[in-house]
Amino acid sequence: MTPNSPPYSVRSSREGSPLTPVASCEVTPAVVTASPTASPLLMSLLGCVTSPSAFTQEVVEQHIPMENNPRPLSARMGDNAEYWVDQSGDILHLKFPAKLDFIGQWCRLGPYFSLPDSGLDAASLKRARGHFELYLLSPDDDEYSDYPPEALDMSRRVIETLSALATEVEDACNSALAASKQPVVSPFFRSYTRDEQDHFVLLVQSDLLFPDIPNEQQGASAIPRVSRWDIGKSAVLLSPSKAKKMAESKDSPGSSGAPRDVIRIRDLYDPDHRYAGLGNLRETKVECPELRQAKFVEVDVYLKLWAIPPLHQPKLRMSDRDKYGSRNYQLILRRLQLLPCSTYLNPSVLDVKGKRKASEEPEDEGAAKKLSVGDDDCDMNA
Question: For residues 196 and 165, what is the distance between their CA atoms, to the nearest angstrom?
Fold first, then answer.
């Protein structure tokens, strides 16, 4: 990607995620068959839904415990949210195919992502995420003839499972509350019911886009980056501006040891010149998947729940969220793969019966702990 390119072209290279791959579930792939003349899309969907880490019925029945689920994982995840886990206590992941909509009502993948319409500052940048709007595969789609039955089954399984998990939480938390005093709920999905549309879409969020934004205390006490080898080599007295230039020179693409593909806020597409006034914050690294105008994707997400209590101090004008609190169900993107994908089109991936080989995952699951998007092995023209 080149600097100042259009939207949907921001790369992620987040390392050190605490998440554990769902491959530990060791589910049994389905036995499927495919015609030698099957389309690239059909073959890719087939490869996705029959992979060992795909969200099969076996995962639903054997790997999502009902007790103490979701649960807080503050020591591990660093926040006060609750997370769904598998039978081993690891973060539960769902991997499934879907359709990506760049222009949907809830999509926030333009140049400013989920940022507010005005007043950009460090506080708003620290909360910014990309929002993906995903359609589950349906028999009503134009591409229906390229959908294997297993892919349609998985779409139904995803929406039913998300509904069931949220229903369990709501029933348990609201058992002693009158309907008029229950918290406001933001579910895993959103509804389209107008203009002859009648379907749900999943709202998937990226991780934080600008995790390196310093807090006020860090900014006030920033230490100039000076090594012992630098002492005595400058003819000028250090100042805040000179320390900033020194740090920039050490971070520049020509400096040894610095990554050459780091994307910073200054590199983002900025049609309304909103990033231009951020000053030093424009040097902040950006971490988000690189996307193209693809239609079909394979996503790997984990499930998160925020329970927001009501306000203790009444205000003159209070919303229902302020009065009764809220529960926000979130799908957080762990990995995204554009489809069709050449790895899934490899004939060696399927045996003669069409069974997905457990050893032929498109990428090493351990390496997929970071948030990433696979696109260099995808056939975008298929």
Answer: 29
